[in-house]
């Protein structure tokens, strides 16, 4: 248990909060490996070129990641008062989410398991 008054504890906890604009999508229906291919293509780029890359990327999950990026840009503009022209993607990653297990019937009464994988996609922006 932390020592001090409740407000002191809250103040100390809030000092460590990251003020960079970000957006997170939990339980996205795309596997982490497929999402990481797309995220590697946009990491470190400015947001305008990243949106252009995502718009014309035919890979799985590009449309979902584009929505998350646009949400992060809107968060930076509305919540932090940042200019969208000066933003770039500082961090972006996809963590593993829960796997949905489904069963597919096979020959002679057997059942094969199909795993529908999910991921948690996070994009963190910063200003140049």
From TrEMBL:
Cited function: This protein binds specifically to 23S rRNA; its binding is stimulated by other ribosomal proteins, e.g. L4, L17, and L20. It is important during the early stages of 50S assembly. It makes multiple contacts with different domains of the 23S rRNA in the assembled 50S subunit and ribosome. The globular domain of the protein is located near the polypeptide exit tunnel on the outside of the subunit, while an extended beta-hairpin is found that lines the wall of the exit tunnel in the center of the 70S ribosome.
Record-linked SUPFAM superfamilies: Ribosomal protein L22
Stored HAMAP family: Ribosomal_uL22_B (MF_01331_B)
UniProt name for this protein: Large ribosomal subunit protein uL22
Gene Ontology CC annotations of this record: cytosolic large ribosomal subunit
Keyword Ion transport: no
Annotated PROSITE patterns: RIBOSOMAL_L22
Family: Belongs to the universal ribosomal protein uL22 family.
Encoding gene (name): rplV
Keywords for this protein: Ribonucleoprotein, Ribosomal protein, RNA-binding, rRNA-binding
GO MF annotation list: rRNA binding; structural constituent of ribosome
Subunit structure, as described in the record: Part of the 50S ribosomal subunit.
GO biological process: translation
Alphabetical list of Gene3D superfamilies matching this protein: Ribosomal protein L22/L17
